[in-house]
Design goal:
Blueprint (H helix, E strand, L loop, with lengths): L1 E3 L4 E4 L5 E2 H8 L1 H12 L3 H8 L8 E4 L3 E4 L4 H10 L9 E4 L12 H16 L2 E3 L6 H8 L6 E4 L12 E4 L2 H8 L4 E4 L3 E7 L8 H12 L9 E5 L8 H8 L9 E4 L3 H9 L14 E4 L1 E6 L6 E3 L7 E3 H6 L1 H16 L12 E2 L2 E2 L3 E4 L1 H4 L2 H11 L10 E4 L4 H9 L2 H8 L2 E2 L5 H4 L10 E5 L19 E5 L1 H9 L24 H6 L1 E2 L28 E10 L4 E2 H4 L12 H5 L10 H21 L5 H14 L7 E9 L2 E3 L5 H8 L2 E6 L5 H9 L3 E4 L11 E4 L2 H6 L4 E7 L3 E7 L5 H9 L2 H10 L3
Parallel strand pairs: 5-6, 5-8, 6-7, 8-9, 11-12, 11-15, 12-13, 20-21, 20-23, 21-22, 23-24, 26-28, 27-29, 28-30, 30-31
Antiparallel strand pairs: 1-15, 2-3, 2-14, 4-10, 7-25, 16-17, 16-24, 18-19, 26-32, 32-33, 33-34
Helix pairs in contact: 4-7, 8-9, 14-16, 14-18, 27-28
Subunit structure: Monomer.
InterPro entries: Acnase/IPM_dHydase_lsu_aba_1/3 (IPR015931), Acoase/IPM_deHydtase_lsu_aba (IPR001030), Aconitase/3IPM_dehydase_swvl (IPR015928), Aconitase/IPM_isomerase (IPR050926), Aconitase_4Fe-4S_dom (IPR036008), AconitaseA/IPMdHydase_ssu_swvl (IPR000573)
GO molecular function: 4 iron, 4 sulfur cluster binding; aconitate hydratase activity; metal ion binding
Length: 766
């Protein structure tokens, strides 16, 4: 089904790949290096990256994007940060969509207040404002903004438009702020991994099945982490562009940096249908192209899949799962209990087995992955003249945009779904992040959405509330719905199915979307609701640093959803301190209390220094051990902050709040073995925290202090290895390091955060 190459490969004239060692043997040792270097320039990715690269180096990229996108739980903070940094207008098309906080009313008016702020910002700075219920962020960008050879940056991790020939990247808000200030996105040239597609998918196999199969094959070994996935091969032609879009958006779950697809006549037809024929151009590898690895996919061997809790990589074929359901469920229960804590009464999945059949309580087809026209039309075909039943099982369907919704109505698909008992709703991302259609406690939901991390469905294990989510394709979800919630593969349901031709009509966009790019009205006042707050002042990096260990998480991976929960907490993302109260609340409820205690200790230290008296017993003990560690230490040049330790933090969402919430509570560093994604590490840096790593097991505990002397001087000198001292019952050294930083990243940390860095540059007229 899927084969991973253990070495680089050459693709010559678009034919089957040749392992690098075989091709280079033919070339000869003397010519091999030059041949490879030239062939690296033959990928689709190389051409797009270099076209957007503003540096003089092909290896150290400085990217300026063609457009950007944010939704309503990220754009307020981004605009506030850019405004504080000196922005006066949006220098590139910036789309503000309202698809996350549009259906939840937590906190009274505060969600709609954000939308009013967003419209006022679009008017003032020249933005594009998409009102609530009109489109989910990524569908709007596909329909209106993506094009062949472009690059788009979004403040959402699923920013992926590769099937339309666009290299799109999801990042934290700080990287979007840099673009608004006409700075660049700086990265080393990434490795490029080919995804070579052969064979023809079975009619029952949908895009989610293909995506999950790929994620299952690559995620756990980090095969594409921070790399670009380039989809090529003869079988792209067997998939419509709408189908490809649904595969492409899921590449985020592999931990790759971005994705791009070979384009063809169907891509051109899609763009022409959406009124943008000029956005098409043929993209394909050159006659000889070198890839740093390859995922070889035989589409004909992929079967309908299910990704069980708690990650999209936890995949089985539906048939395999049904054959071994008891064993697989017991194994999954153990994993869940280990992750959320053994004291919870949740995670009992085996009770869903009845007479050898597995029953689920909810189905959802939604968002940028599931809400596409092709997925919903196929689900409507499967459910035609069937009955979801009047028991506990329910099916909710969210078309991804109003144009998609309108044509599904015209085609009779909505009628078929409703007649079967499904509830069809407006464009909304809630089921993807825990703010919509939360299942009952101990219920099991199957979803064609993007993620099934813990808490993404809205449960709160700390309160004894837990429901489980599995990912499946819309086709098999519909088959399950028609079978009363009994888990059912779509095989046999679509053998004669022909998808009705989609007709796009964007009149709703013409009537409702505010198109302000290039038309900024600088005298427009920003409209602030009572929950919209400015960022608090943040201190620069001190010369010496004392870090209080405020949490220690030993899970193999810690997601951004665990660092800052999604769901109803999203309503507070325009209020830095208000949101910070939820930090790690579903993973380590005592973290906030410990972080505030560290911040209070820093306030006591500053007061004692100002008054030239040193009376606090905790500070006395810390200072005593600091002197043991380095012989002498200047208390005046020392700062106290909090830190989190995780083995591998930051999988999942791009949300910068996973870092900013730590920072506004006094956070000064993360320590980990490895960062799960580049975007989370970038968020840590942009919020002025030190992104430390540790090669060995962590030998410190929660509530220990770690002293890092001369951290500022060493960082200024470009040093990336640091000796810290664990101040517990004794004084023990610990070796920390930071992976390479750009000059700007180094200076952002020294300044204390991106806002401070930009203010200083403005003051210095840089």
């Amino acid at each position: 089904m899927i084969t991973l190459y253990g070495e680089g490969v050459y693709v010559i004239k678009g034919k089957d790949p040749v392992p690098a060692h075989e091709q280079e043997q033919k070339i000869g040792k003397e010519m091999a290096a030059a041949y490879r270097d030239k062939a690296k320039q033959g990928t689709i990715s190389y051409g797009i990256l270099q076209t957007h690269n503003k540096s003089k180096s092909a290896d150290l990229l400085q990217i300026q994007f063609d457009a950007m996108a944010s939704h309503d739980i990220t754009y307020v903070g981004i605009i506030q940060t850019a405004k504080a940094s000196g922005m006066h207008r949006f220098p590139l098309p910036y789309v503000l969509t309202n698809c996350h906080n549009s259906l939840c009313a937590v906190g009274g008016t505060i969600n709609e207040d954000d939308h009013v702020f967003g419209l006022s910002a679009a008017k003032k700075y020249g933005g594009i404002f998409v009102p609530p219920h009109i489109a989910v962020i990524h569908q709007y960008m596909r329909e209106k903004m993506a094009g062949c050879g472009k690059m788009i940056l979004g403040s959402d991790s699923h920013t992926r438009y590769g099937a339309l020939g666009t290299l799109a990247i999801g990042e934290g808000g700080g990287e979007l702020v840099k673009q608004l200030l006409q700075d660049t996105y700086d990265i080393p040239y990434p490795e490029i991994i080919a995804v070579y597609l052969t064979g023809t998918p079975d009619p029952a196999v949908g895009p989610h099945d293909i995506a999950l199969a790929i994620i299952g094959a690559v995620f756990k070994q980090g095969y594409v982490k921070n790399k670009i996935m380039e989809f090529i091969g003869p079988s792209i032609k067997h998939m419509r562009t709408d189908f490809r879009n649904s595969i492409d958006v899921m590449t985020t779950e592999t931990a790759c940096l971005s994705s791009i697809w070979q384009t063809d006549e169907d891509t051109e037809q899609y763009l022409s249908l959406h009124g943008r024929k000029e956005a098409y151009k043929k993209l394909a590898p050159h006659e000889t192209a070198y890839y740093d690895g390859m995922i070889y996919v035989d589409l004909s061997k992929i079967r309908p899949m299910i990704a069980l809790p708690m990650h999209p990589s936890n995949v089985f074929t539906i048939d395999e799962f049904k054959r071994q359901a008891g064993d697989i469920l017991r194994m999954t229960e153990k994993d869940i209990q280990k992750r959320i804590g053994g004291n919870n009464s949740a995670a009992f999945l085996t009770d869903k087995l009845q007479d050898g059949k597995f029953y689920v309580q909810q189905g959802v087809i939604a968002g940028c992955a599931g809400g596409n026209y092709g997925n919903i039309a196929a689900a409507a075909h499967v459910l035609a003249h069937k009955n979801c039943g009047n028991d506990m099982f329910s099916l909710e369907v969210y078309p991804s945009s109003q144009p998609v919704y309108m044509d599904l109505i015209r085609k009779g698909c909505v009628t078929s779904l409703m007649a079967a008992g499904a509830v069809v709703k407006t464009a909304f991302c809630g089921p993807c992040f825990g703010a919509g259609d939360t299942p009952a406690n101990n219920a099991f939901s199957i979803r064609h959405t993007t993620r099934n991390f813990p808490n993404r469905e809205g449960s709160k294990p700390g309160n004894g509330q837990f429901s489980a989510v599995a990912l499946m394709d819309a086709r098999s979800i519909a088959a399950t719905a028609g079978n009363g919630g009994c888990l059912t593969s779509a095989e046999g349901y679509l053998d004669e199915y022909v998808e009705p031709e989609y007709i796009y009509d964007d009149m709703v966009y013409n009537k409702r979307v505010y198109e302000g790019f290039g038309k900024e009205k600088s005298d427009t006042a920003l409209i602030y609701g009572p929950n919209i707050k400015d960022w608090p002042e943040l201190p620069p990096l001190p010369e010496h640093l004392v870090l209080k260990v405020c949490t220690k998480i030993s899970d193999p991976v810690t997601t951004t959803d665990e660092l800052i929960p999604s769901g109803e907490t999203s309503s507070y993302r325009s209020n830095p301190l208000g949101l910070a109260a939820f930090t790690l609340s579903r993973r380590d409820p005592d973290y906030v209390m410990r972080a505030k205690a560290a911040a209070m200790l820093e306030e006591i230290r500053k007061k004692e220094v100002a008054e030239d008296r040193y009376a606090d017993s905790v500070l006395k003990e810390i200072y005593k051990k600091m002197k043991i560690a380095v012989g002498s230490a200047d208390w005046k040049d020392t700062g106290i902050g909090s830190l989190i330790y995780c083995v591998k933090p930051g999988d999942g969402s791009a949300r910068e709040q996973a870092a900013s919430c730590q920072r506004v509570l006094g956070g000064a560093a993360n320590i980990c073995r490895e960062y799960a994604t580049k975007r989370y590490r970038s968020n840590v840096i942009n919020w002025g925290m030190l992104p430390f790593q540790l090669k060995e097991e962590a030998s410190f505990s929660v509530d220990d202090y770690i002293f890092i002397p001369f951290v500022r001087s060493r960082l200024q000198e470009g040093k990336l290895h640091f000796t810290g001292y664990i101040l517990d019952h004794t004084v023990r050294p610990v070796s920390l390091y930071i992976e390479p930083l750009t000059e700007n990243e180094k200076n952002i940390i020294l300044s204390g955060c991106l806002i401070n860095f930009n203010r200083q540059r403005k003051q210095n007229n840089i």
